[in-house]
Write a structure and sequence with these properties.
The structure holds 2 protein chains of 2 kinds. By secondary structure, chain A is α+β, with helices and mostly antiparallel strands. Chain A folds into 2 domains: 230 residues, Rossmann fold (3-Layer(aba) Sandwich), CATH 3.40.50.300; 116 residues, OB fold (Dihydrolipoamide Acetyltransferase, E2P), CATH 2.40.50.100. Chain A has 8 helices and 20 strands. In chain A, the strands form 4 sheets. Chain A has a 6-stranded mixed beta sheet, with helices on both faces. The longest helix of chain A is centred in the middle third of the chain and has 18 residues. The radius of gyration of chain A is 25 Å and the shape is elongated. The two termini of chain A are 25 Å apart. Helices cover 72% and strands 2% of the residues of chain B. Chain B contains 15 helices and 2 strands. By secondary structure, chain B is mainly alpha-helical. The radius of gyration of chain B is 24 Å and the shape is globular. Chain B folds into 2 domains: 64 residues, no CATH class; 210 residues, Orthogonal Bundle (MetI-like fold), CATH 1.10.3720. In chain B, strands 1-2 form a two-stranded antiparallel sheet. The chains are: A alpha+beta, B mainly alpha. At the A-B interface, strand 6 of A face helix 8 and helix 9 of B.
């Protein structure tokens, strides 16, 4: 365990920005802090960096408590959202700057700058100043500057947020490649779930200063532990339908009543047994799991198609049964007509159940 | 009928002409002074004013060498000393105010006090006071402390008067900077001192130049305090200028114009030297992001 946060808390006056966070990041692991704006993810990162004092709790780097160390004594490399390149220095000087404290000779410094510039293809721009660089080049230099040293860990604050879509995709791959070679603990802060899902080994989803779930990208998506994570991860957003649990048939076939009088009988997680009939729940199903049926079925809801949005290979349909909005994604070849009746089907095992306290109901 | 509208990005000749006329009206007093400096006494007083005349440098010579009315012998005036005084006093006090102001501004910007805005407001109020309000107590303080008439006295006063202005202006430049750069430097091993000198200061050089020039102009032109608080040895040009008026021969317009023309040169020179920085300085926050 090389980055370890224990009950880490940050308060700004009466506002608690980060509340008692526990988190471990192992060697070579890439952890993404993912959450909406203002959820405390950047503050958490800055506490690891030493740019903010922790109000409570501890930060351990390589097993050593660093709460009282200044940023420069923590040996942490950080890349900033707005790149934070030194405007008065050239690209080469920017890259070399972190090395000045390391007591290296001039030729060693030059060799390292050369190596980084080869890795990130900065050869042609070494003598320019940051003001003369394009966004993508600035990003490369910022990444280069953070990996030129041999720090305990790497921190990235919204590394791709300023790039356009195409560059973002390109840089995502590049950063991932670079990070794999480094095998250091890395924390990436992002509000872009695609970025988190593609780059992270594990994702910590944050809301209002707390961690809602820490898990692999796959599990965060497939097995959200609560309503917030379910709604936050995945585009289009998961369909969340308030319902009442009415009866259980057999082991795992549950019957639910939704507003508007329709009932829904679906195969769900066996943990449903623990619920008493009459319990209020929220049903969650991904738009890509929903299926279209020609006939009304017991394990589905009948709706009307409001809007059809072609997305290329797939089509997104916004549907409404008079009380709930449903989103459905299906193959582009499936004919969907706005204003027509459509019957949906909830395939077995794809429906998540969230109890009234917003936690998921699932056998571990 | 299609509505006519003005093409954006172009002004017509008419507007350019109007602006030129207004500009000339503004510049006319300066032109008059500079022309008068090269005129003989008769030319200077001629009605209607002469636009074409034989220029003479007599006025400039008599700024520094003048024949005494009583003895008739030519002797050096103290004007050279007064010019030195003006340059020395304004230069030292504006530089000192800029240094103190920059340090204070950085502190106010990066390490805000409890009630930071209140402090800044109080600092600003000292600038809002008409000088005449405080001139009597300050005069008494200077008399009692023996600072009246000394270089240090007037430099201290001008420094104190320039600091609020410097703090406010420079703070706004620091506020505009991206704090991430400072954080990055800290992460990369820079000490706080290095962060300040190596990364903050170079980014606001234009702003510092603008602050310096504004302060310099204010101090250079200051008359009231200079009149009361400088002595014979430390007199500045504005005071000396006022003292050349009147006397036995009436107002010597040529001489006065020559002094004023010389008085213009240093400011003109500094402004010209820093003009690129100045433009960037005064438009700092507006175009940077």
């Amino acid at each position: 365990m090389t980055i370890e946060l224990k009950k880490l808390t940050k308060r700004f006056g009466s506002l608690t920005a980060v509340e008692a966070i526990d988190l471990d990041v192992g060697d070579g692991e890439v952890l993404c802090l993912l959450g909406p704006s203002g959820c405390g993810k950047t503050t958490t990162l800055r506490m690891v960096a030493g740019l903010e004092y922790a109000s409570e709790g501890d930060v351990f780097l390589q097993g050593k408590r660093v709460n009282d160390l200044a940023p420069r004594d923590r040996n942490v490399a950080m890349s900033f959202q707005f790149y934070a390149l030194y405007p008065s220095l050239s690209v080469a000087e920017n890259l070399a700057f972190p090395l000045h404290g390391e007591g290296l000779s001039k030729s060693e410094i030059n060799a390292r700058v050369q190596r980084i510039s080869d890795t990130l293809q900065l050869g042609g721009i070494l003598n320019r100043t940051p003001g003369q660089l394009a966004e993508g080049e600035k990003q490369r230099v910022a990444v280069g500057r953070s990996i030129i040293r041999d720090p305990n860990c790497f921190l990235f604050d919204e590394p791709l947020s300023r790039l356009d879509v195409q560059l973002r995709e390109e840089m995502r791959g590049e950063i991932k490649e670079v990070l794999q070679d480094l095998s250091k603990p890395t924390v990436i802060v992002t509000h872009d779930q695609l970025e988190a899902l593609t780059m992270a080994d594990r994702i910590a989803v944050m809301r209002d200063g707390r961690i809602e779930q820490v898990d692999t990208p796959h599990n965060v998506f497939q097995r959200p532990s609560n309503l917030f994570v379910a709604g936050f991860i995945g585009t289009p957003q998961m369909n969340l339908i308030p319902a009442t649990f009415t009866a259980l048939h057999g082991d795992d076939t549950a019957e639910f009543a939704v507003e508007g009088g329709q009932t829904l009988t679906v195969v769900v997680d066996p943990a449903i047994k623990t619920l008493a009939p009459g319990a209020k729940v929220t049903l969650g199903i991904r738009p890509r799991n929903l299926e279209i049926s020609t006939e009304p079925v017991a394990d589905g809801l009948s709706t009307r198609i409001d809007i059809v949005e072609p997305m290329g290979a797939e089509t997104l349909a916004h549907m409404n049964d008079g009380h709930h909005d449903l989103r459905l994604v299906t193959d582009w070849r499936v004919p969907l007509t706005e204003g027509e009746q459509a019957h949906t089907r909830f395939p077995p095992g794809t429906t998540h159940i969230f109890t009234e306290d917003e936690q998921v109901l699932r056998t571990p | 009928m299609a509505r006519k509208y003005r093409e954006i990005g172009k002004a017509g000749w008419g507007y350019t002409a109007i602006t030129t006329v207004v500009g000339l009206i503004y510049f006319f007093p300066v032109l008059w002074i500079i022309l008068t400096a090269f005129k003989t006494r008769t030319d200077a007083l001629a009605v209607p004013p002469k636009l074409f005349f034989t220029p003479t440098f007599d006025n400039f010579v008599s700024v520094f060498y003048r024949s005494s009315i009583t003895t008739g012998t030519s002797q050096a005036t103290d004007m050279a000393l007064y010019f030195f005084n003006s340059i020395f006093i304004a230069g030292v006090s504006v530089t000192a105010a800029l240094i103190v102001g920059t340090l204070a501004a950085y502190a106010f910007s990066r390490y805000p006090l409890r009630g930071n805005d209140t402090y800044l407001f109080i600092i600003l109020t000292t600038r809002m006071l008409p000088p005449i309000v405080v001139i009597i107590p300050i005069f008494l303080m200077f008399r009692l402390s023996g600072l009246a008439g000394s270089y240090w006295g007037i430099i201290l006063l001008y420094t104190a008067f320039n600091i609020p202005f410097s703090v406010w202006l420079v703070k706004s430049f620091f506020d505009e900077l991206n704090p991430e750069i400072e954080d990055a430097a800290r992460m990369d091993g820079a000490s706080e001192r290095r962060v300040f000198f190596r990364f903050c200061i170079p980014q606001i050089l234009a702003g510092l130049s603008a602050t310096f020039v504004f302060g310099l102009i204010l101090t250079w032109n200051e008359f009231l305090f200079a009149l009361l608080l400088t002595g014979v040895e430390t007199r500045t040009v504005p005071v000396a200028m006022a003292r050349t008026m009147g006397g036995e021969v009436g107002v010597d317009y040529g001489l006065l114009a020559a002094i004023v023309t010389l008085f213009l040169i240093p400011i003109f020179f500094v402004t010209f030297l820093l003009q690129n920085q100045l433009l960037r300085g005064v438009t700092f926050g507006t175009v940077k992001k």
